[in-house]
Amino acid sequence: MDDAKSNPKLTLLPLIALIFYEVSGGPFGVEDSVSTGGGPLLSLLGFFLFPLIWSVPEALVTAELATAFPHNGGYVLWISSSFGPFWGFQQGFWKWFSGVMDNALYPVLFLDYLKHSFPIFNLMLARIPALLGITFSLTYLNYRGLHIVGFSAVVLTIFSLLPFLAIFVLSVPKIRLSRWFVVDFNKVNWRGYFNNMFWNLNYWDKASTLAGEVDNPSKTFPKALFWGLLLVVCSYLIPLLAGTGALSSPPTEWADGYFSEVGMLIGGFWLKLWIQAAAAMSNLGLFEAEMSSDAFQLLGMSKMGLLPAVFSSRSKYGTPTISILFSATGVIFLSWMSFQQILEFLNFLYAIGMLLEFAAFITLRLKKPNLYRPFRVPFQTFGAAMLCLPPALLLILVMCLASLRTFFVSGAVVIVGFILYPILVQAKNKNWLLFEAEQLSSPSNGWHSIDSELVGHENKDTELPMSSPLPMVEEELSLMESDSNPK
């Protein structure tokens, strides 16, 4: 009972808020879609069509696999079960690195909004201490407990979206429909446009790394993903329809932070200040949600034996202390990069990982048709493959549009992951570091294969026991210990 009190589970509303912040956090950052799209038309069309092509398939895949594997580690567990621990580790490394890069954006965006009213944050003398102070403060809040982060996310969601509801109400008399159809194809920056769309609509799978912390995940996850998807799409389209329809601002003015000027022009100075405050608070929520997912992903990988046992150590608040500190350190080192640099790098790494997830989704349908799936995408294997085809093509397009520098940087990250895995295997074999795998795979401790726990439960109404620790795949463990190629 004490453990349950010290580590309360996430319920539906906090999980919706965390998914909202994993993916969106509000319309802050979508302004670039107007300028890179050469006008409002492509921006509005993008936020109508991209959720259908990209967000819905990813959310459905996440709902099926997160409920089939309701443990921390999320997609790392999916890939390990499909292709073996080598690729599970690579997936975890790519996703963690892209997540840390993503998190490095939010303190930067926080100050970018504040500098419109406080120009001192344009100076590095003030900007660097502010970035460090924000990172340390939010890291401490994350350390204090996931339930606190979830509750904070609910409050921040309400506060961040209310000013845009005000913008919409005030803009209705000023809207001219013809302004929505403006586009200059000669000024479209396709690389920037697709990267902006992709970044604002991805990371649906991130919350799966918190599955072990969710109350009744088989029912809670699908509901949370549905309402999260609806909330994200509305939070983009409503402000864009209001701002672009009520104002005749040239597309070049739509850049990061421009919604505060939209508030000024539509409602006055009070609305501008409210939007700036909402933007600042939203970026705090984005940071908290991303930090939680990154940290609990490392915890899950540690429980699987892919990382040293120290990453699974928890504080008295139930949070993975070392994993949080490790992720925060990465944020500090990456926060010096520019917004567009970070955006392109993390999109490329995320795209590689998502292609692997779609492959795992189809592979598990073929290899383990009897895997217990509390939520199942309502298609047979061929239909499921067709569901994944459009987003897979979009992923390839985003990767092809990347700059040469992004190819080199991302390639270097991939190579580091390939090198790091055998080093960790050697550290495990030589007992240089303590891993939990030996304990998890020990018959004397009662551990068993995840396949034997899950396969054959297709027709059962009862859920798997959530209080039991994460089981290990013994076949995968033997592969790790022999340092052989993954199956």
TrEMBL record:
Keywords: Cell membrane, Membrane, Symport, Transmembrane, Transmembrane helix, Transport. The chain crosses the membrane at residues 41-63, 75-97, 117-141, 148-170, 224-246, 258-275, 324-342, 348-366, 378-398, 404-424. GO terms for cellular component: plasma membrane. Gene3D superfamilies: Amino acid/polyamine transporter I. It is found in: Cell membrane. GO terms for molecular function: polyamine transmembrane transporter activity; symporter activity. Belongs to the amino acid-polyamine-organocation (APC) superfamily. Polyamine:cation symporter (PHS) (TC 2.A.3.12) family. PANTHER family: OS12G0580400 PROTEIN (PTHR45826:SF17), POLYAMINE TRANSPORTER PUT1 (PTHR45826). This is Neutral amino acid transporter. It comes from Medicago truncatula (Barrel medic).
